[in-house]
TrEMBL record:
<keyword id="KW-0808">Transferase</keyword>
<dbReference type="GO" id="GO:0030170">
    <property type="term" value="F:pyridoxal phosphate binding"/>
</dbReference>
<comment type="similarity">
    <text>Belongs to the glycogen phosphorylase family.</text>
</comment>
<comment type="function">
    <text>Allosteric enzyme that catalyzes the rate-limiting step in glycogen catabolism, the phosphorolytic cleavage of glycogen to produce glucose-1-phosphate, and plays a central role in maintaining cellular and organismal glucose homeostasis.</text>
</comment>
<dbReference type="InterPro" id="IPR011833">
    <property type="entry name" value="Glycg_phsphrylas"/>
</dbReference>
<dbReference type="GO" id="GO:0008184">
    <property type="term" value="F:glycogen phosphorylase activity"/>
</dbReference>
<dbReference type="GO" id="GO:0005737">
    <property type="term" value="C:cytoplasm"/>
</dbReference>
<protein>
    <recommendedName>
        <fullName>Alpha-1,4 glucan phosphorylase</fullName>
        <ecNumber>2.4.1.1</ecNumber>
    </recommendedName>
</protein>
<dbReference type="Pfam" id="PF00343">
    <property type="entry name" value="Phosphorylase"/>
</dbReference>
<feature type="modified residue" description="N6-(pyridoxal phosphate)lysine">
    <location>
        <position position="666"/>
    </location>
</feature>
<dbReference type="GO" id="GO:0005980">
    <property type="term" value="P:glycogen catabolic process"/>
</dbReference>
<keyword id="KW-0119">Carbohydrate metabolism</keyword>
<dbReference type="InterPro" id="IPR000811">
    <property type="entry name" value="Glyco_trans_35"/>
</dbReference>
<comment type="function">
    <text>Phosphorylase is an important allosteric enzyme in carbohydrate metabolism. Enzymes from different sources differ in their regulatory mechanisms and in their natural substrates. However, all known phosphorylases share catalytic and structural properties.</text>
</comment>
<keyword id="KW-0328">Glycosyltransferase</keyword>
<keyword id="KW-0663">Pyridoxal phosphate</keyword>
<dbReference type="InterPro" id="IPR035090">
    <property type="entry name" value="Pyridoxal_P_attach_site"/>
</dbReference>
Length: 820
């Protein structure tokens, strides 16, 4: 059996010896005492050892190639479990499975011991993980830079239906087997303090920052293993530690130490991932996280650049820095500061480098998610950066004055500084002004970025705004998580589809093949059974796999409209009980969603779904036709069971609100049919599969905007539609909360008196009607199989390999460097 790159030989005896060595020397266990967890750790360490060697080799090889690299800066990398996926990338799955069997172990059991590294909230963090996978698979030189949070996204449980959060110590007490400490890469990061003027040897007036305190950045590398090649890139995660000995003299310097320093412990900075998704809170510790991340990362990029023997003048030629949303924006003034104050470049030279190095991806149009930081906070924590931001803005305002002379309205709108009771720094504006490329994440979203978010910037900087439609890695999201479907695909189109997803189009010609349809649906059924078993074992709910499995999994947010799904479920409940002639194919509605801990209405929606589930699942009047399952603690490893098991994928955001979505792509690739609005990437999915193979409903972006402008009145829909009215009114009763009426009323209140900001009522009737169509179409199983197959066959556009090629060709100007 050959391995990666079809050259290395797997030495089974040596591997088994390495596992046993780690069991004893790293984890202090004997073969006799070791439990499954210890064996998993030992196997993980033995594998990590191999990949660390390749990582160091790749770093050297890339440095010597003098090729341009991309540095992907993101506060989040939602990587999911690494062991199983890495085995697939290394081509070692079968070999290692055989080796551990000889040690009396089962590989699947070992893999289940791994905790998800949940270093991200949702879509943005998972996208970063898919992108790193595609960079490595295609050998585009890259480094991922993130934070080594001690606690990842909180763990969710339900108590009497309500979300309860617990800390997520993802590394366990033993540490994570795949991470390796890189002590030689440590960085020192300054905070607070003052800026001073001085005159240098050449008699020039200069500025420099004198921080009040320093913290230390420690680098942990995780290996990003290229699928079927020999490249391994680092995902470099920074941990914040207080330096020893702590500089108490400076810390206590009365001039610069404010009261807030009491709360600052260096160890706090990377303690926990902020659990907000699409919402900005403006907390000082978050700004500190962002700066710590950027300072360590920019310094490390410069270190590599100089270590490879390059000059600062060539920086932009050799390094691209991609900003994953505005969260790492402070990297821009940080690089300016280093170029000006440490490399002694003049402004124009420094600006020329910066503005050719950075590019920015926008992931949202929601106003509450656009980051702003108060000038006061930045001035205090990062005084030199604030000066630089003012200077960038000053020069930018001159440019605006040239373009629109005397137009103060436009200046107010475009300024990086928002005037008001307290001045705020608009991070998105700073990004658009300072980067050479800005992109949205789906065609529709990118159009709205041009038309609604940054129209004047588009005029001022023609050609700067781009689209790169998101994608997902077919390695994790088909090959690894859906082995049954993978085998079927390989049989028909060959086995190189995981790196050339265009190949799956070869399935199209089997869409009408009855024998193939049967086998495809048999795989779907096995995957539904795997999910049903999980639900039975973990939740004690029994499910019928002949039912339609209808799934909505994503963060809980009003704009994503889990409550539209809920109101529809209530309407089915109402009809099953009150309409004797109403018939429906049995259906299970699955939900998986975490709510930001401070988002009250999102938590109310979780509570309501759980209460409705309790009642519905035990109501004999429904004849088993309707089940509702809220999967607790939704995470990547559960997504790997859910996507392959879905018949129907719920992508029902209000048009214009979901920038792209990526779950939509994972579902369709695994053969689920989408019910969705004309939003985000749904629009492009429809173009690929054709209108007959997707269930589109609801208002379009322009109709949404028009309705809101004209004055939207949810009561109009409430009064006009008796089914909608009956469904909503159920929320006022004690039907689902016996003896306690009104416990679910907050949702109804939000939709009626609250004005229904996301137009749930306006879209309800079309949504319900479209679900009836799904019910009818599912009953014709050959017809359904055909559509499901076509969804798999026609999804190749949504491979993250294509997204990365788009970035490489249109934004980064990057060429693959193939390691021999
Ligand atoms: C901001 C400030 C302070 C604390 C947290 C945040 C924060 C954190 C995470 C703001 C936003 C996020 C995450 C946003 C996100 O996941 N957006 C999603 O990105 C996906 C990938 O492009 C898209 O597919 C989704 O449509 C988009 O919602």
């Amino acid at each position: 059996m050959t391995t990666r790159g079809q050259t290395q030989q797997f030495d089974k005896a040596a591997f088994k010896a390495a596992v046993q060595k780690h069991l004893v020397t790293t984890y202090a266990q004997t073969v006799e005492t070791a439990d499954t967890r210890s064996w998993y750790l030992a196997v993980g360490r033995a594998l990590a050892e191999i990949s660390t060697g390749s990582l160091l080799e790749t770093e050297k090889f890339v440095a010597e190639s003098n090729a341009r690299s991309v540095n992907y800066l993101s506060l989040e990398f939602l990587i999911g479990r690494l062991t199983g996926n890495n085995l697939i990338s290394m081509g070692l799955y079968e070999d290692v499975s055989g080796a551990v069997e000889e040690l009396g172990l089962n590989l699947s059991d070992l893999l289940e011991e791994e905790r998800d590294p949940a270093l991200g909230n949702g879509g943005l963090g998972r996208l970063a993980a898919c992108f790193m996978d595609s960079l490595a698979a295609q050998e585009y030189p890259a480094v991922g830079y993130g934070l080594h949070y001690e606690y990842g996204l909180f763990r969710q449980s339900f108590e009497n239906g309500r979300q309860v959060e617990a800390p997520d110590a993802w590394r366990g007490i033993e540490g994570y087997p795949w991470e390796v400490l890189r002590p030689e890469l440590n960085q020192t990061v300054g905070l607070y303090g003052r800026v001073e003027s001085y005159i240098n040897e050449d008699g020039e007036n200069c500025r420099r920052w004198v921080p009040a305190l320093n913290v230390e950045g420690v680098a942990w590398d995780l290996p990003l293993i290229g699928y079927d090649n020999k490249s391994v890139y680092p995902l470099r995660l920074w941990e914040c530690r207080s330096p020893a000995p702590f500089n108490l003299a400076r810390f206590n310097d009365g001039d610069y130490v404010g009261a807030q320093y009491g709360q600052l412990e260096a160890g706090n900075v990377t303690k926990v991932l902020y659990p907000n998704d699409n919402h900005d809170q403006g907390k000082a510790l978050r700004l500190m996280q962002q700066y710590f991340h950027c300072a360590c990362s920019v310094a490390d990029i410069l270190r590599r650049h100089f270590a490879a023997g390059h000059k600062i003048e060539d920086f932009a030629k050799l390094e691209a820095i991609q900003l994953n949303d505005t969260h790492p924006t402070i990297a821009i003034p940080e690089l300016m500061r280093i170029l000006l104050d440490e490399q002694n470049l003049d402004w124009d030279a420094a600006w020329a480098i910066c503005s050719k190095t950075f590019a920015y991806t926008n992931h949202t149009l929601l106003p509450e998610a656009l980051e702003t930081w108060s000038e006061a906070l930045i001035s205090e924590m990062l005084p030199r950066h604030m000066e630089i931001i003012f200077e960038i803005n000053h020069r930018f305002m001159s440019l605006v004055e040239k373009k629109w002379p005397g137009n103060n309205e436009i200046k107010r709108k475009l300024s990086i500084i928002e005037e008001g009771p307290q001045r705020m720094v608009r991070m998105a504006n700073l990004c658009v002004v300072s980067t050479y490329a800005v992109n949205g994440v789906a065609a529709l979203h990118s159009e709205l970025v041009k038309r609604d978010l940054f129209p004047e910037f588009h005029e001022l900087f023609p050609g700067r705004l781009h689209n790169v439609t998101n994608g997902v890695t077919p390695r994790r999201w088909v090959k690894y998580c859906n082995p049954g479907l993978s085998a079927l695909i390989s049989e028909k189109v060959g086995d190189d589809w995981p790196k050339k997803l265009e190949k799956i189009a070869g399935l199209e010609k089997f869409a009408d093949d009855k024998a193939f349809q049967k086998r495809y649906m048999a795989v779907k059924k096995e995957n539904k059974q795997r999910l049903a078993n999980w639900v039975e074992e973990n939740m004690g709910i029994e499910l019928d796999t002949d039912a339609i499995f209808d799934i909505q999994i994503k963060r809980l947010h009003e704009y994503k409209r889990q409550h539209l799904n809920l109101v529809h479920i209530l309407s089915l409940y109402h009809r099953l009980i009150n309409e004797p002639t109403f018939d429906m194919h049995p259906r299970v509605f699955f939900f998986g969603a975490k709510a930001a801990p401070g988002y009250a209405l999102a938590k109310d929606i979780i509570f309501a779904i759980n209460k409705v589930a309790e009642k519905v699942n035990n109501d004999p009047r429904l004849g088993g036709k309707l089940k509702v399952v809220f999967i607790p603690d939704y995470r990547v490893s559960l997504a790997e069971i859910l996507f392959p098991a879905a018949d129907v994928s719920e992508q029902i955001s209000t048009a214009g609100k979901e920038a792209s979505g990526t779950g939509n792509m994972k579902f369709a690739l695994n053969g689920a049919l989408t019910i969705g609005t004309m939003d985000g990437a749904n629009v492009e999915m429809r173009e690929e599969v054709g209108d007959e193979n997707i269930f589109i409903f609801g208002l379009l972006v322009d109709e949404v905007q028009k309705l809101l402008e004209e004055g939207y009145d949810p009561y109009r829909y409430y009064h006009a539609d008796s089914l909608l009215r009956a469904s909503l009114d159920l929320l006022e009763t004690d039907e689902f909360t016996p003896g306690k009426p009104g416990q679910l009323a907050a949702i109804r209140h939000n939709l009626l008196e609250g004005g229904d900001p996301y137009l749930v009522l306006a879209d309800f009737a079309d949504y319900a009607k479209t679900h009836e169509k799904i019910d009818a179409e599912y009953r014709d199983q050959e017809n359904w199989a055909r559509k499901a197959i076509l969804n798999t066959a026609l999804m190749s556009k949504f491979s993250s390999d294509r997204s990365i090629r788009d970035y490489a060709n249109n934004i980064w100007n990057l060429k693959p460097v193939s390691k021999k």
